[in-house]
Sequence to fold (893 residues):
Amino acid sequence: MTVKRILVVAVLAAAVAFPHFAGYTLSSIAITALLWAYLASAWNFTFGYLGRTSLGHGAFYGLGAYTTVMLASKFGVTPWIGMWVGAVVAGLAGLLLGAVTLRYKVRGVYFALTTMAAAELLRALFNSWNWVGGPMGLLVSPLPDPANFVFASETSYYYVALAMVLGVYLLNRLLWKTRIGLEAFAIRENEDAAEAAGINVKGVSLFFVTLSAALSALGGTFYAQYMLYIHPDIMFSFEPTLHMMLGSIIGGPSTQLGPILGSLLVSGVDAAFRTLFTGSSMVAIARVMYGLVLVVIMVRLPDGLLGTWELNRRRRIGAQAAAKAAAQATARAAAGAAGAAEAAEATAKEVRPDGTVAG
Amino acid sequence: MFHESVIIQQLISGLQVGIMYALMAVGFSLVFGVMDIVNFAHGAGMMAMMYVSFVLFRSVSLDPILGAPLIFALAFAVGVVVYRLVLRSISHAGHSTTLLATLGVAIVIENVVLAIFGGDLQSVVTSYTSAMIPFRGAFISVARSYAAGIALLMFAGLYYFLHRTDFGRAIRAVADDVVGAQVVGIPMHRIYAIAFAIGLGAAGVAGAVIIPFTLISPFVGVDFLTKSFVVVVVGGVGNVPGALAGGILLGLVEAFGSLFLPGSLVNGLVFGVLLMVLLFRPAGLFGGARG
Amino acid sequence: MALLQVERVTKAFGGLVAVNDLSFEVHEGEIVGLIGPNGAGKTTVFNLITGFETPTSGTIRWQGRDLKGLPPYQRCRLGLGRTFQITKPFARLTVLESVMVGALHHAHSQARAREVAMEVLEQMGLAPLAHALAQDLNIVQLKRLEVARALATRPKLLLLDEVVAGLTPAEVPVVVDMIRSVYRRGVTILMIEHVLPAVMTLAQRVVVIDHGVKIAEGTPREVTTNPAVIEAYLGEAGAVALG
Fold:
């Protein structure tokens, strides 16, 4: 067993055992942290894979939550099914937005701005639509009912959140090995070159945007079933989108673990901040810090913490391999020169006086 | 179906608001067209200038419209600083980098304002805030007319600047062909800084002149940004007259849309217009400065 | 039948006509050069052939089939490979990964694409750099990678856009050799070049365009002694170009 394997097993064991040792408060913090780690990964399917910034992921997150809660409260559909309907709804929304903005003639940045406008639109719409609760929001019945995705204990929610994070991580690992994953990275690095190399840029982009939207919707459902209250300003505003983005950007969008680790880091810092400082203006000050972090990262470390580390590691490996190959080539050339002389000699010896060649 | 006075009312207020939208958006369009950078801090910057104007009004009773030149100068200076500090080193980087960097700036601005002033809505009441001129059964808001007038002046000034002055020509050269412009000796970063600063300046003036009739809050930045985006998509990136046309179009769509639809659905209508333009004329109804 | 047929193609950008009623063919097994002074519209021709631009009028045929409406990626899958004048590397991917990308559309999996890519890297002399990041390569290596990536797509016709431009005199023969070896592996080549000596040694036939109009076509020797061509080039420091 390598050190890495032991570490992985230890971390997993700790994660699984965690809720039995932590109290209520710590568990709550952990659950929220895990949810945002999951959502950061979900958002990253557009940013880290395609290089596309969605500024309106709250739209998908919110659509997932609202679909589930509405199906449950109006039609008695269990959220365990409703959440997939929500994922489909959000996926379709993502598909629509992508189909309009991810085309050759449309400027790259329009995707970001259009998703932002879409989320804002949904916020305004849902705020004035009384059938979905309007400005009052929607409450989820808090009666514990596992069949309807409401649990009595934090522990159950914790395990669901943990499963979601593990699931999305495994999905990342899988996609990195597939054709479509590599195609996405190519698109991220240079769209024109990807298209010229035979990649269906539009198709691959739509796949990842739809996937990202659907996964975000699932996260929205979890939020609804955990917090038991949703409201357009909570779900569709820029808040959740920013939260999803920060983890991925800080951690490293071009890595598998980056969004998760980055998000956990942000959650940790945030939690520490909240316990140390209280007061309403503290919220604003915390956000000022996030804004500054965003600026600094973009100017200094655009690949994020883990991403920059990974990139440098790959560079070192590449440089070493190149140096080694260069040394080998030089050695071969030198041996080749000597060998060629030998071979020439050997051949010369084989030519008999009558002109025939022996051997 | 509607009485003539209603039509006239919506026409006039739609025009007035539309011209304001145009002024708000032209700076955004310019930066986008010249440097290919989407300035996410555009809306927040405009909002901050609203607050500066507000403070000046409350403290020294400086009328926001008279104070517009001062606001322009201040916004210009801030623009230069932001460019130097943040954008200069990443001006060549990919779209997402500049997008996220300016987004970070926007978050900082919005929350600094929030921390200082709190989230409550503020308002400014000047001598002309509620003044109305009757016209054919409709009422023309004097405050909005002043604002629209200033906006048109600024538009004219901007157009003159871009087409008749050396700096303006340099800016247009850079927008057209960055490498070529540098080859003939145009200092790219200085031009970029100036274009960015003008963009912010225009937005600042827009922010200042609307406070006599608009509610002031730290959260209006997003709305400004979204509307600027719609104007730019419709009018064409970097296209100054296009921004005017796009803004007026947006204003009229909103004004007439509100006759038939409730408030939030008017947003839906605007979004629908946005999607239509993106689908059928992504370069804008009037084409952009860059292909 | 010709591999590629450009038939009376015109491309206008608003009032500016970049390509004007241009016609030429490329047959299998040829190396054809497309030359002309700067701004002649050469890259636009490539963009039209590969689908990055749409002709205002005229037809482009690939193995007899009209390419109208086909997006660039499908043209690539049909066998039209291209490089870009200003190289477009996948900066954060390794050399191997970059070339794998080109192979994906016919290899269907990363594993299979890796095999194909390794072969191509060997052929192109890039094997030692397989794990280097594209963003760390020098200009010659980048150009080599650009061609390797296009090769991995299994092109029947390779469009090379100014592969030699921007290289030092010492680097030029290296790249010319590379192009020759690609040709010998059975790839038909259409190359745009502004640096005439490279084209003259490689191409069997040359098409000359100026301001979007074909002004000459023939063997390199025929074309360089053509007065219209000389004038087109002399109109802009042509002495340097012809040297």
About this structure: The CA atoms of residues 235 and 245 of chain B lie 6 Å apart.
